[in-house]
Amino acid sequence: MLTLERVTAGYGDTTVLWDVSLEVRRGEAVALLGRNGMGKTTTLLAALGLNPARTGRITFKTTEITRWQPFAIARLGIGYAPEGRQLFAPLTVVQNLRIPFVNKHPDRARWPAQLERVFTLFPALRERRRQLAGSLSGGEQQMLAIARALVGGDELLVLDEPTEGLAPTIVSAIVDAIRALKAQGITVLLVEQNAHTALAVADRAYVLEKGRIALERRAVDLARDPEALQRYLGVDADTARLVGGPTR
Amino acid sequence: MTVVLQTLNGLTIGAIYILLASGLTIVFGLQGIVNVAHGVFYMLGAYLAIGLYPRIGFAATVAAVFALTALLGLVLELAGVRPLVRWKRPGMQVLVLTLGVAIIASEVTKLVWGPVPLLSDVPAGLAGTLTLGPIVYPTYWLFVIAFTAVLMTLLALAFHRTTLGILVQSIALNSEISQAMGTNAPRINSLVFALGTGVAGVAGVLAGPILSVYPTMCFDLLMILFVVVILGGLGSLLGIVVSGVLIGLVNAFGVAYLSGTAGNILAFAVMIAVLIFRPLGLFGRAGILK
Lengths: 248, 290
Fold this sequence. Notes:
The structure holds two protein chains of two kinds.
Chain A: E1 2-11, E2 14-24, E3 29-33, H1 40-48, E4 55-60, E5 63-64, H2 70-74, E6 78-81, H3 93-104, H4 111-121, H5 123-127, H6 138-150, E7 156-160, H7 168-183, E8 187-191, H8 195-201, E9 204-209, E10 212-218, H9 219-223, H10 226-233, H11 237-243
Chain B: H1 2-31, H2 38-56, H3 58-86, H4 90-113, E1 129-132, E2 135-138, H5 139-161, H6 163-173, H7 175-180, H8 185-207, H9 217-220, H10 222-232, H11 237-257, H12 262-277
Antiparallel strand pairs in B: 1-2
Helix pairs in contact in B: 1-5, 1-6, 1-8, 1-10, 1-11, 2-3, 2-4, 2-8, 3-4, 3-8, 5-6, 6-8, 10-11, 10-12, 11-12
C-alpha cells in the first residue's frame, strides 16, 4: 500500500535518511523501530510530504506521491497522529475532528457516523466533545490525536510515538484501540521507541540505525531475538516478554 | 464637548486603521509574511472611488472596489508571494517584493492621476450631520465607525463559527499539521490574502472623503499600521480592534491638544511602552487568531 524506495531525506545541510526502502502492505501493521535520532520520524515526514524526500521514490497504492503537497497526500486517505499529539489546543474536540473530515469527505452527511465511530473507539472523548483540546489529559489528548487521524484516514494510519509519556493503563488502552483498528482492516504504520509496545501490535518491524534500515523481521521473530533487541534497540528480551510481547 | 468629539474622531480614524490592519495581521498569522504593498490596495480603492462613485453610486462602488482589489491581491499572492513561500524562507523576500510593488504602484498612480492630492465627495445619502443632544457630528464619519464595527463582527463570527474559519484557525495554529489533516493551506492562504486586500480597497473608498487622496498615501499609513498590528499582537484579530481604537484615540487627542505631529509620536510611544511589558503585544500569542 505504501512503498518507499531508496529514500534520502534530511534537514538543511544534514542528511538524516540514507537509501531507506520499506513497504507497508494492505491490512498490515508495520512498526518502525530504532533508538532516538535514528530517522524514524524523518521517514514518516518524507512519506507524508511534510519534509519531502531528496531522492528516491514514494508510492501509495499505484500513485507516485514523492513530490506531492502534504494536503494532497493526506486526501488519499492517510491519517496521521504526529509525535507529541500536536492538537489544535484552542479548538474543541469536535472542531479538531471536523478539520480532517471537511477536508477529506465530500459527503458531509457522513459526519454523525464518523463521530459515532471515533466515540465508540474512545468513549472518553464523547463526554469531552465540547471541551478545548488543550484542556484534556495526556491520555485523552493521545486518543483525540488518533481519532483525528482516523477521521478520513481509513486507508493508512500513520502513528508517531502514540504511547510516549503515558501511564501504563493508558498505554494498554491505546494498544487495544490500535489492535481494534487493525482488526477493522485498517493498515497501520507505527513509529515507537518502546519496542515492547510496538511488537505487541505489529506484524512486521523495520529497525532504523543511523538513517539506514538495519533489519526487517516479523514482529514475533524480533521479539524472540534478544541479541537483535539488545543491539539495535537496547532492550532486554526478558523484559520484552514480561511486558507482553506479541500476543496472537 | 471636545472630549466627545475627539473620541469620535479617534474612533473614525481607528476604524480605518482596523480595516487596513485586519488583512495585514491575518496574513501574518497564516503565512508569517508582511505585505508592504497592502497600502497600495487602500490607495487604489480611494482613487477608483473618486471616478466610480459619481457614476455608479456608493454601494456599487464599495462592491466593485472590493471585487477588483481582492482580485489584484489574489494575483499578487499567486504570482509573487506563493512561489516565495514555497521556497521556505519567505520573510525578507516577500518584504522586498511587496515594497517594490508599492513603489511601482505609487509612481504609476502619479502618472495616471497626477501628484496633486484629491478629495473625494461624501456619498450623497450620508452627507450632512447628525445631532445627538449637544453633539453635532458628520453622518458619514459615524457611518464609517458603524460599518467597521459590523464588518469586524462578521469577520470574527466567520472565524469562529464557520468551517472555513476553523480551517483558517488551524492553519494559523499549525500550518504543517493542518495540511497533514488534508487542509489545502495554499488555497486558503490565497483566499484570505485576497479578502484582506479587498477590505483594504474598501477602507480606501471609506477614507477618501476623510483623509486626502494622494500618490504616496500607500506608504504614509503603513508605519502607523505596523504600530497597530504589533501593539495588538501579530496575528490577533481582537488585538487590532483594541489597538486600532487605542491608536486612533491617541492620534486624535494628540493632534487636538498637542500638535499635528504629536499623534504619530504618541502612537509609537504607546507601542513601545506596551511592548516593554508585553513583548508579544496586547493579545499576542504565537500563531493564534482570536
